[in-house]
Design a protein that fits this description.
Layout: E1 24-26, E2 40-42, E3 51-52, H1 54-67, H2 87-91, H3 101-109, H4 112-122, E4 124-129, E5 132-137, H5 145-153
Antiparallel strand pairs: 1-2, 2-3, 4-5
The chain binds zinc ion.
């Protein structure tokens, strides 16, 4: 007997799409998810004989996919160069927490200590922007030990 090693059968039976009996075994993908509720084999070979093979299903599905035109999108292969900001400049944004709306808002929701933990964890800065203050989220590619020291220094805010 040939075994379909690529698509194993489910070890449970479901309702057969043809005869309606709970004798239908679905074909599964390798991760255990059924290919489609109708893709499988009824084990009432004599009286029903329903079988829908994964190959047949996938082939007919491909026909459907052919009719669907994917919007063409040009993908740029040129990687933008990262822009680096001086550490001193970054550090200067870790002040003025008392005017940062996000930080003030968080203080009304969670404790001050937790807010400071979040500032430290996500490097939340405050920056003068136009005539207002803005929240800055720094992207950091390295964790600086001295950043920790710096954060401890201003924790008396
Ligand atoms: Zn059946």
């Amino acid at each position: 007997m040939k075994t379909n090693y690529k698509y194993p059968f489910a070890n449970y039976a479901t309702k057969c799409p043809k005869c309606g009996q709970r004798r239908f075994k679905q074909y599964l993908y390798s991760d255990g998810t059924p290919i489609h509720p109708t893709v499988g084999r009824c084990n009432r070979e004599e009286s029903c004989g329903y079988e829908y093979k994964p190959k047949e299903y996938l082939e007919s599905n491909k026909i459907l996919l052919k009719n669907y035109t994917r919007p063409t999108k040009r993908i740029s292969t040129v990687k933008p160069k990262p822009m680096y900001v001086d550490l001193g400049e970054m550090k200067s944004t870790f002040s003025n927490h008392n005017v940062n709306r996000l930080i003030l808002f968080l203080c009304t929701k969670i404790g001050v200590e937790q807010v400071y933990a979040a500032i430290k964890r996500y490097f939340i800065g405050t920056l003068r922007y136009w005539n207002d203050w803005a929240t800055v989220f720094w992207y950091i590619d390295q964790v600086f030990i001295f950043f920790d020291i710096f954060m401890n220094n201003f924790s008396n805010m």
